[in-house]
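# step 3/5: fold
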Amino acid sequence: MLNIADLSSGQTTEALYLISERSVRSHRNKPGQYLQLTLQDRTGTVKAMYWDVPKNVIDEVQTGAVYKVSGRVESYMDSVQVRVTGIARPTEEIDWGQFLPESKRSAEELTADFDAFIPTLKDPHYRELVQGLRNHPQMWPRYLVSPAATVIHHSYLRGLIEHSLNMCWLCDKLAEQYSEVNRSLLITGAIFHDIGKMYEYDSGPTFQRTTYGELIGHIAIGDNLVVKMAQEIDGMPKEKVWQIRHLILSHHGQMEWGAPVLPKSLEGFLLHYADNIDAKVSTFRLAADKTSEGEDWTERVFSLDHRRLYIPQDNTGS
């Protein structure tokens, strides 16, 4: 079985893949339709085209299901793509762990790191807000497993908490450097800034947006969650609620990137840049992981202005 990360132009493949995206298109110059698909396994995704697709296959193939896909791997616009020749229902038992990418860090390790931050929050109201998430019987399991995106950064199981903890570490260093920063607020913002994503995305069998997520979006969902959670904290000043809401609402940094308001506090600026740093590093790592050993350059990365990224082979990290 060829993993998607190992596909290269000229190969043939016949393997089990999850259909994470599916659309039916009409041919421009001849009668009939074709299928445009995204195939997925735990190592990544790849576009696939089934040009001469039988009508019964169009009706049969659906997103969120696993099929045995046969085809030839081709190069298209600097990326690999599968020209499908056949799709069939599998006869063997499905191991879903083969098809959903996950963090390299275990749930237990991430939980321990999350728990270590809670007692360091000196502000009692923000500490209680974070503890409320940790103790919540419905929210915490979703927060722990959710991806942080569908394709761009931390797009795997436990990606949300991994991304949030990475930001906690960055924000902790920033608070050390700049003494006027409200560290408790900034760390709490790192934990809650993307909390709405646990309802914006499905956590399997695909990472597609939910109807709720499409209609409302994770920023508005997260803002609403924090308002409700803050109401359960006795004596929490409304100004503190406003400040944490501001971090959630402004963390995208620019209105054209989806921020309802721009950062207007020091913590807001720092949170936005910490978010951008960690997202860019994750995007770089995902592109590097898909690059063949010995190659100095990645394929073009759509989310980074179609740039190819340089991976020096002699990089020792020094």
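# step 4/5: annotate
The chain has eleven helices and five strands.
# step 5/5: archive (pending)
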